[in-house]
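Worked example 4.2. Below are the chains of a multi-component assembly; read each line carefully before continuing.
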Amino acid sequence: MITAERKPFEEILSLVEGQKKILVAGCDTCVAICLTGGEKEAEILASELRLKAQQDGREVEVTHTSAIRQCEWEYLDMIAKQVEEADVVLSMACGIGIQSMAEKYAPKLVMPAVDTNMLGMPQEHAVWLERCAACGHCGIGLTGGVCPIVRCSKSLLNGPCGGSHAGLCEVRRDNEDIECAWALIYERLKAQGREELMLEVRGPKDWSKSSSGGPRKMVREEAKPV
Amino acid sequence: MTENGFKSGGKLEKILAAGKFAVTAELGPPKSADTSVIATKAAILADCTDAVNITDNQTAVVRVSSIVSSHLTYEAGCEPVMQLTCRDRNRLAMQADILGMNALGIHNLLCLTGDHQSFGNHPQAKGVFDLDAINLIKMVKDMRDDKIFQCGDEMPVGPAVYIGCAENPFGDPFEFRALRLKKKIIAGADFVQTQCIFNVPKFKKWMEMVRAEGLHQEIKIMAGITPIKGAGMARYMQKFVPGIDVPQDIVDRMAGVEKGPASQAEGKKIAVEMIKEFAEIEGVAGVHIMAIEWEPAVPEIVEAAGLMPRPAVA
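Applying the procedure described above to all two chains together yields the following C-alpha cells:
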C-alpha cells in the first residue's frame, strides 16, 4: 500500500495562510488504512485548524470531507460541490490523490497536508516498512523474494557490501537499525536450497524502466472500452 | 591491453606480475582548493611505495576529485591508483573519466561501491548507485578488452587500465566473503586491496577460503593495513567504523602505552609486525597501507618491515 505521514501543523498552516474557506479532504483508501488521511484524520485536522483560527482571532471556515479514492475522477465527482465552495482544498490523500484533485478542479488551490513516503507493508499495528520502489522490472524471483533495490541502502545487485554486519546494514535510519537486504537474501536462498544464485553476476539495472526514463504511462489495450 | 602485453603498463601491475611483494599507500586529497598538499604527501610516499591510492570523496566527505588528485600525484612522481565510487556518478560520468584517465598519467583504477552518503558531510545528497562495484569492474574490463561501452557501442581505442577492487574479509555473511571476491574476479578485477586488517586470525581464515577456491592464483591480493595512533583511535574504530573488526587485544596493547610519541611508535610497530606476518601467508601479494592523515608514518613502516628499497621496473 501507499503510505503517507501528516505534515507538521506549522507547515500546513503556512500552506493555507490567508485563506478563508478551507476544505480538508481525506481519502478512504491507502492513507486511511495507514491512519494518516482518512475521514477521521480529516475531521481532526479540520478541528485543529478551527481551534487555531479561534485562538488567533481569525475568521476562517473549515469543513471536511472524504472521497472513497481521491485518485479516481468518479469519486472526486462526489465531492464536487464542497470543493467548488472552498478557497483552498487541503488534501490528505497520497501524492496521486492530491494531483488528481488539483487536475480535476484546476485552477482551484489544492495543498498537500501529508508527505507521501513509500510503498510499504504493515509489519505490525501502526508500523510500516518500505517494500517496493516501483522500479519497473521486478527481479525478486532471483533474490528469494527480498527486493535489493529498495531494501539495500545502495541498491546493490550482487551481494552485500563490506558494511554488512551481523545481519544489519551499515546505514541506520532515524537512529534505528536496518536489516541488511543481502543477508536476508542469502539466508532465504539457503533455506530454499538455491544459494548458488548468489554467485551469478547480475548485470546493470535498466533504470529507464523506473522514473529515470521520465514519467511512466501504462496502457492496457485489451481492457480499453471498444 | 598495451603493446608489451600488460593490461596497463603501469609499475604496480609490473611489480605484481613479477611476483614481487608490492606496497601501496593511501593519499587523501584535501578538503579545500589548496591542492599543494597533494604534492607534499606524494613526495613522502614516492620512494616507499609502488603506487598510491587516491581516495574518491572518502567516507562521503567532499574533497578534491580523485581524477584531478591522481593527475597531480602523477605529476609529483607517484603512480596513482584512482579510486572511483558508484555513489557519486552514473555510468556516463564514470566512463567519461575512465576514457580520459590514461591521458592524465593514470593507469590503475580501484572500483568501489562507496561509503553511503549518510556517513558524510552531505547526508541529504542523492546517492547515485546506478551500478554496483561488480558492474563497474565489468564495465571497465569491457572497455579495455573488448573496446565497448557499457551500452555495447564500440570505441576505436580502449583505455589501458589495471583493474582493482576492494573486499572486506570482516563483513558478513563471512562464508560469502571469498565468494564475493570470486564474483569480482569473474567481472574482471586484476587486483584487490582489502579492508584494513586488525583481526589477523580471521583474515587468515578468509585467506584459507580464498585459496580453497583457487582465487589467489587469479587475482593479486594486497592486505590492508592502517597504523593506529593511539588507544582512542583503536576504540573509535572498534565501536563506530562499519566493517572494521578491531580485536580487544589490539585496543589493550595501545592502551598500555602513553598517548603521544610512545603510542604512535607502538601503532607503527603493530603495522610492521602485521606486514611481516602477511608476507608469510600464501596468496598475499602485497600490502596496502592506509595511514589516515598520517602519511609520514608510511616510509618508516615500510623501512622497518624490510621492504626498502622498492623494486625498479623497466
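Take a moment to check your reading of the output against the notes. Residues 133-204 of chain A form one domain. The longest helix of chain A spans residues 39-56.
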